[in-house]
Design goal:
single chain; 105 residues; three-stranded antiparallel beta sheet; 56% helix
Length: 105
């Protein structure tokens, strides 16, 4: 019986590098402002919006719109499902690293 390869545990929604970046940054804060994500991840507003939409549709982030004074703002926060998906992704990546550090015989 063969073991499952660690890459089978990677989630296509989470694993894409910009979406993984959004989730990891959002996990570090209560909520993160759209402009901060855009500049930190070096994305255009349109690209970032699309990645956030994918994550929101999957239930991994929540988007709140409001104002900071008179300026419209968009904030992104990670959901419980997002935290679980991120933890699962990290576990799969750790397993993949461990497999390469100690290759099976």
């Amino acid at each position: 019986m063969s073991e499952t390869h660690p890459t089978n545990g990677l989630d296509d929604v989470v694993h894409q590098r910009h979406r993984l970046g959004i989730l990891t940054i959002a996990a570090e804060a209560k909520r993160v402002e759209f402009g901060y994500l855009r500049s930190t991840l070096d994305l255009t507003a349109g690209n970032l919006s699309r990645h956030i939409s994918v994550l929101e549709e999957a239930g991994l982030v929540k988007v709140d719109k409001g104002y900071d004074g008179r300026r419209p703002k968009t904030w992104v926060s990670i959901t419980g499902a997002g935290r679980t998906a991120l933890a699962d992704e990290m576990a799969a990546l750790r397993a993949l690293l461990a497999r390469h550090e100690n290759p099976p015989e």
